[in-house]
Amino acid sequence: MKVFYEDNHIIVVEKEPNIPSQSDKTGDLDLLTMVKQYVKEKYNKPNEAYIGLVHRLDRPVGGIMVFARTSKAASRLSEQIRNKEFKKRYLAVVDGKFKEKKGTLEDYLYKDERNNISKVVNSQKKNAKKTKLDYEVLNYDDKRDLSLVKINLHTGRHHQIRVQMAHINHSLYGDQKYGSRGKNKQIRLWAYEVTFVHPVKKEEMTFTYYPDWTMCKTIGLKN
Fold first, then answer.
1. What is the spatial distance between Cα 20 and Cα 59, in angstroms, rounded to a whole number?
2. What is the pLDDT of residue 50?
3. DSSP string, 87-131
4. Contact 49/43 with Cβ under 8 angstroms?
5. Residue 25 scores a pLDDT above 90
6. Which residues contact 164 (CB under 8 A, 6 or more apart)?
């Protein structure tokens, strides 16, 4: 497990693809448990270490995650998320070429709990939630007809990026639920940057870590 930063209040780590953010019905080892074990062993804690989960990434998605090491830090980080002060930015490889280099997508999403999928619906549908994201095209591979896009989330809905991109016919490469290309491949979605205010020091902090994708390296996005 790669650790980018840690102190007495928070710990920032890399979530590798296909590791659950927290325990689920599969029983597979999850990142929350891994962080607890790391802190317990490093600091020789006699009991289980407290680690607060304040945000999540879908199981197939990789990238940066921030955990709280105290309940006070967890509360303050959660408040930043509610107030949209906790910023997460993503990179995605999607199908096709965009007409515009930049754009904003605003939709209403409905989550189908039974099938664990979300879909774009009319704003009048019961339990539909408004969603918004900005995107910017960074690179286009004309041989494979794939685009590398940077995505800034304004809302954090269930499968939001995957659903909104698929809705405009730019589904994520390797998306087994909503995609049309890259079946049996790893989904190309990565949380490459987070920005937030330290819950105790009150300093703004930004962490950036790029995925090991060829389309990123081509334009110089290297760690």
1. 5
2. 95
3. EEEEEEEEES--SSSEEEEEEEEEEETTTTEEEEE-TTSTT-EEE
4. yes
5. no
6. 105, 107, 109, 120, 131, 133
Determine the Cα–Cα distance for residues 68 and 50; give it in Å rounded to an integer: 8
132, 163, 218 from 124: Cα distances, Å: 17, 18, 44
Q: What angle do CA 57, 194, 85 make, to 5 degrees?
A: 100
Spatial contact of 160 and 133, defined as CB atoms under 8 Å apart? yes
Report which secondary-structure segment, H or E, holds 42: helix 31-42
Alpha carbon distance 91, 186 (integer Å)? 14
Q: Judge whether residue 180 has pLDDT over 90.
A: no
Homologous superfamily (CATH) of 3-218 is Pseudouridine synthase (3.30.2350.10)
Find tokens 């639920």 and name the residue: 177
Strand duo 117-121 + 146-153: pairing: unpaired
pLDDT tens track for 121-146: 999 999 999 999 999 999 999 999 99
Instruction: Quote the CA–CA distance of 223 and 217 in Å, as a whole number.
Output: 9
Q: Looking at residues 190-203, what average pLDDT do you find?
A: 98
Helices (H), 168-221: 214-218
Q: How confident is the model at residue 176 (pLDDT cuts 50, 70, 90)?
A: very high
pLDDT score, position 30: 96
Contact criterion met (CB below 8 Å) for 19 and 27: no
Neighbours of 13 (CB within 10 A): 20
